[in-house]
Write a structure and sequence with these properties.
With 284 residues, the chain is an alpha/beta fold. The protein is built from eleven helices and ten strands. Helix 1 packs parallel to helix 3 (94-117). One of its GO terms (cellular component) is mitochondrion.
């Protein structure tokens, strides 16, 4: 790969048997993949790079180790050394303190949103503890898979805050059930794989982490075999239409496809169907 994917807190691999697929893994297993401030900044940079990389057409996102996808925010580290610590802003008036925190939260939100903004479809494969930030991250992904041992929780009320990085905005749109979202968000109770599947939070459940990651890679491989013009356009239009009225979505689709439908990929796809062969598509 031409791009440099050397990161401290994430590993990036390109499986030989899945062309154009990037496998990103959170690499802090000794701390249950809990996030430091430096990690979410790095994650934003990583997904921006994946978005621009023409050698990548789909992404799988998982966590290292057997215990957790991520246990969420490293609260101890955040309270001692990050912008969430109060010591550096004591002495300022409430308005200035609020402005400081607002900018910090917006930066955090942008890093998480980098997964949603990534032009390439992102499949998240979760296992073990998947608390707090895991929900924020996974709701920005396009497809969510999990292992049977997963433990989910919208955990923020247990540390004295309302979730502010995306869960309260995105999770209701993912599952389409405000009553259920309010229950888990207000109580911070743990729920498992079968409940997550029942409410539509995850697409499928697998026996263990290995099977979950394997299924994610297989799905990513299938997506990566399609026209990148079509796949990236589909993700863009689906995300845009989710947040706009139907008529606006139809108009946006028409404007988008007025350009995109002129691609040679359409001819290649149609001919391959007639000729019963697998098409190949140029990089985008």
């Amino acid at each position: 790969m031409a791009q440099d994917y050397s990161f401290k807190y994430f590993t990036v691999q390109f499986p030989a048997d899945h062309p154009y697929v990037a496998h990103v893994e959170i690499n802090r297993a000794d701390k249950m993949n809990a996030f430091l401030e430096a990690m979410w900044l790095e994650m934003g940079q990583l997904f921006a790079r994946l978005s621009d990389d023409s050698n990548v057409r789909a992404v799988v996102f998982s966590g290292a180790g057997d215990k957790a996808f991520t246990a969420g925010l490293d609260v101890k580290a955040a309270s001692e050394g990050s912008a969430l610590a109060k010591d550096g802003i004591d002495g300022t008036d409430p308005a200035r303190k609020a402005a400081h925190f607002r900018r910090h939260v917006a930066e955090f939100q942008d890093c998480i949103t980098s997964i949603e903004k990534c032009e390439k479809p992102v499949i998240v494969a979760m296992h073990g503890y998947s608390f707090g930030l895991a929900i924020d991250i996974s709701t920005t992904a396009d497809v969510r898979l999990c292992s049977r041992d997963v433990k989910f929780a919208v955990k923020e009320v247990d540390i004295g805050i309302a979730a502010d990085i995306g869960t309260l905005t995105r999770l209701p749109k993912v599952v389409g059930n405000y009553g259920w979202v309010k229950e888990v968000a207000l109580s911070a109770r743990v729920f498992g794989a079968e409940e997550a599947l029942r409410v539509g939070f995850v697409n499928a459940v697998y026996e263990n982490k290995q099977e979950t990651v394997a299924a994610a890679l297989k799905m990513a491989g299938l997506i990566a075999s399609k026209s990148p013009v079509a796949v990236q356009g589909t993700k863009e239009i689906l995300n845009w239409s989710r947040d706009h009225p139907v008529q606006d979505g139809l108009r946006y689709t028409g404007v988008w496809n007025a350009a995109a439908i002129q691609t040679q990929d359409v001819t290649k796809a149609l001919l391959s169907g007639i000729q019963k062969r697998t098409p190949t598509f140029e990089k985008l």
